Amino acid sequence: MSANQKTTGLFPSALLALSLIILLVGERVFGEGTARQALSFAGVLVFVLSLGLRIRGLLRSDSEMRKAETLLLTANGGVALALLLYAFSGESALELFAVVDDAADSAQTVLLLGWTCLLAVSLCALLFMELVYNRMPLAESVELRRVKTALYAGLTLGFALIFLFCVNYVAKERDIRRDVSYFRTTQPSDGTLRLVRRLDRPVRIILFYRRSDDVLNQIKPYFSLLGKASKHIKLDVIDYAMAPELTRKNRIRDNGYVLLLRGEGEEEKGESFEIGLELTGARGKLKTLDALFQQHFRKLNRPKYSLQLTVGHGERNSDVDESTPGELTKGMETLLKRLNIRVSNLGVAQGLSSAVPDEASAVAIIGPREKFMREEAETLLSYVQNGGRLLLMLDSDMDVGLEPLLKGLDIQLLPGVVTSEKHFVRSRSQQSDQTVVYTNNYSSHPIVTTVNRHRSEVASVFARGAAVARRADSNLSIKPKVTFPVRTASDFWRDLDGDFAREQGEEKQSLNLVAAVTLARENKPEGRVVIIGDGDFVTDKLISNSGNSLVFVDTLAWLIADEQIAGDVTSEEDVPIEHTRDQDKIWFYTTSFAVPLPILCIGIWIARRRRRRQEARA
Question: Which helix (H) or strand (E) holds 411?
Fold first, then answer.
């Protein structure tokens, strides 16, 4: 062999890397269909080409170079075997070998572990050997000792990765969890302190704990602050065994409960809730202690209101499609329960086409998608004209048959979707995100009292919202009083054609997103209505936002005419982060490749720089 003859170079390994990337894109991005088959075929073809070039290099080499090429070909063979195991792990391949049911699950698990471990070890060994082998351009310069040293280093890294993978897998299967987060109990919110300060009769709070219980040390400061806020609060700590009659009467089964008592003798009324005795089990309730206390305190001291939710028109509250969890109203139902507001349905079967039940404290229409009958719309208008309270949450550009009601309230929904290039929530990283807007421009109306106090911290979010305005063609003899408590900044516009881009005729302006209407007639109670231009305003995808929940609670307080139901809540509960499928893909590729690869490249660069210095000194 000539002294000038070079080794095979990096080209075979580069083709190998390209083939794996093509296969990965086909499997993870496309998943199925013609595109996946085409990419899989192309990936296999490129891999076979790289393997062929490696075999060719082996056949054309001799001496130390042949031994080094043999090690490289062996690593390539490991990658090939890993890909073969991956192909056999598919359901169709297992069915071909008559492996089904439980045996198929076991086989898939074994094959999964096998091909991932083999691929990791082979790639690490190949990478380290190539880094050394590529720096030996002549056949006579090949040092098998250095190539083997690099091989051992690569194998060490590969086996370390396998060890971490196995530990993670076992921990997941065994469900081993350790919570090392900083523990903190909720403090009383301003809303809770206001509730307590308004007390006009004694309330006794009993903590059923032993003095040595760890949970008692966490909750006692909270209730001590409540005791300092009102002279009508009396706080006691009692062991369950020391008050048998009291615990039997209020159905307290053991220590770990909090009991609220009001009144004496036969008029005594109690509300209890459980927190727990062990810190591990009580952690979740301790983080939401303020909400728990508010919920039971309202049951004890406030009248129970009834909110009638319309059904039968595709409303969000009647949607049971679990495939779109963001459009459900479970969060709203939890909030109403805490406010001691009873919820019931109101449809044609409950008399909506003729009259609203007398026991209704208020009526709410949440994001209908189907039309109301004219009789239903007229019933709701008559209900408001006679002093009723109504909450409307309506979507843009959707005729749901409520035009007679809106006309009687002197309100209209303007065409188009409220859009902004600046004040929007980035969720899908698409241009349509500009229709999920936010604002913290609030007036001094009662329905935005609480959120106004926190306007520097929170904002209200509207998903494909509609702008509301007074009617230009109104001919009502008695005009309602209309105010707009929530507005946008002056750089918003109404997207009229659905292309998410501002064009001619779509001028930037300040838009009204919420309208509050009062209707007073002679010898009639004052009717109150709130119109929110967004059917999703209190659905699960938005209700967790404080700017929405605070407006909703204050709106109910104003409609029911009881400001004491309003108030914010403090919580240390972790809010889950939800991603779309596309966002999950972005996070996967970012954490798997975009972040580790630059770090790996920097490490290789530093290692090669140090080695060059050492060789220069030698």
Answer: strand 411-413
Would 190-299 and 303-561 be classified into the same CATH topology? no
Closest among 459, 468, 550 to 516, alpha carbons compared: 468
Give the span between the Cα atoms of 42 and 21, in whole angstroms.
11
Q: Is the CATH number 3.40.50.300 carried by domain 190-299?
A: no
Contact assessment for residue 248 and residue 257, using Cβ atoms and an 8 Å cutoff: no
Residue 119 and residue 98: Cα distance in Å, rounded?
Answer: 26
pLDDT of residue 577: 47
Estimate the crossing angle of helix 214-229 against helix 279-287, to 10 degrees.
30
Contact 325, 540 (CB under 8 A): yes
According to DSSP H, which parts of 371-445 are helical?
374-385, 403-408
pLDDT digits (tens, 9 = 90+) for 138-196: 777 778 888 888 888 888 888 888 888 777 767 766 655 554 444 555 688 887 888 88
**Strand stretches in 263-375, DSSP E:** 269-274, 305-310, 341-346, 362-366
pLDDT of residue 574: 47
Beta strand 362-366 with 305-310 is parallel
pLDDT value of residue 142 = 77
Secondary structure (H, E, C), 155-167: HHHHHHHHHHHHH
Q: Token pair of 84, please?
A: 């073969």
Burial 158-182 (b: 16+ CB within 10 A, else e): beebbeeeeeeeeeeeeeeeeeeee
Going by C-alpha positions, the residue among 446, 445, 429 that lies closest to residue 582 is: 429
Residue 584, pLDDT score: 61
Integer angstrom CA distances of residue 104 from 29, 84, 490 = 25, 17, 62
Mean pLDDT for back-to-back runs of 10 residues, the chain (618 residues): 56 86 80 76 88 85 83 88 85 74 76 86 88 78 84 88 79 56 66 84 92 89 91 91 88 91 83 89 85 83 84 84 70 86 91 89 93 94 93 90 92 93 84 91 91 89 94 83 94 90 88 94 88 93 90 92 62 49 63 74 80 74
Give the integer Cα–Cα distance in Å for 422 and 501: 13
398/416 Cα distance (integer angstroms): 10
Class of domain 303-561: alpha beta
Instruction: Using DSSP, state whether 37 is helix, strand or coil.
Output: helix
> In the chain, what are the domain boundaries?
11-177, 190-299, 303-561, 582-618
Residue type, 400: V
Beta-carbon contacts of 582 under 8 Å, excluding residues fewer than 6 positions away, are: 428, 429
What pLDDT score does 527 carry? 93
Q: Residue written as tokens 């990765």?
A: 161
* pLDDT computed for residue 235 by the predictor: 92
The b-or-e profile of 268-281 (16+ CB within 10 A means b, else e) is eebbbebbbbeeee
Torsion sign over Cα 23, 28, 29, 34: positive
Amino acid at 177: R
From the number of C-beta atoms within 10 Å of its C-beta (0-12, 13-18, 19+), residue 251 rates as exposed
Q: What is the separation, in whole angstroms, between the first and last Cα of the chain?
A: 28
Please name the residues in contact with 245: beta carbons below 8 A apart, sequence gap of 6 or more. none
pLDDT at 208: 93
Kindly list the distances between the CA atom of residue 140 and the CA atoms of 5, 133, 147, 149, 564, in Å, as whole numbers in the listed order. 9, 12, 14, 18, 90
What sign has the CA pseudo-torsion 554, 560, 562, 564? negative
Strand 527-532 to strand 389-393: parallel, antiparallel, or no bridges (unpaired)? parallel
